[in-house]
C-alpha cells in the first residue's frame, strides 16, 4: 500500500500511513522530500531522509502487527522538523550500541548523532511512537 494522506495539504503536519513492507521506506522518503521542498527546508533533506529511513525500517522489521499500518508524521515545530513513526507493536527498539562486527543495530545511534533530540513514547491506542527532531537553524520557527 502506498501513502494514505490523513490531512489537508496546507497543514503544518503531514500524516501518512504505510503498509508494513520494505517498499514503504523509499516511498516515505520521497514524500518527505516533497514536504521539505514545499516548506523550503531542503537543507535538512539528507539528515531527515536518513533519520526517517532508520525509524521506519525499524518499524517495518520489528513493529509488525497483522492488519495494522505504520504511520509517519512530519511536523514543523519551533526551530525544528519533527519526524514521528507510529506502529502498533508494544516492542520497544533497543538503544544499546551493537557489538563490533554486527550487521545491524546502528540505526538509533545514527539517529542520536543526526537529531537534536529523539525519543520513544506511548501513543493513543496500541503501540508506540519513535520521534526525532532535526534543527532547521536560522532562528525562525518556520
Topology:
Elements (H helix, E strand, L loop, with lengths): L3 E2 L7 E6 L5 H16 L5 H18 L7 E8 L2 E8 L19 H8 L2 E6 L5 E8 L7
Antiparallel strand pairs: 1-2, 2-3, 3-4, 4-6, 5-6
Helix pairs in contact: 1-2, 2-3
In short:
With 142 residues, the chain is an alpha+beta fold. It is built from three helices and six strands, in the order E-E-H-H-E-E-H-E-E.
General description of the model:
With 142 residues, this protein is an alpha+beta fold. The protein contains three helices and six strands; from the N terminus they run ββααββαββ. The protein has helices at residues 24-39, 45-62, 107-114, and strands at 4-5, 13-18, 70-77, 80-87, 117-122, 128-135. A six-stranded antiparallel beta sheet has the order 1-2-3-4-6-5, covered by helices on one side. α1 runs antiparallel to α2 (45-62). It is globular, with a radius of gyration of 15 Å.
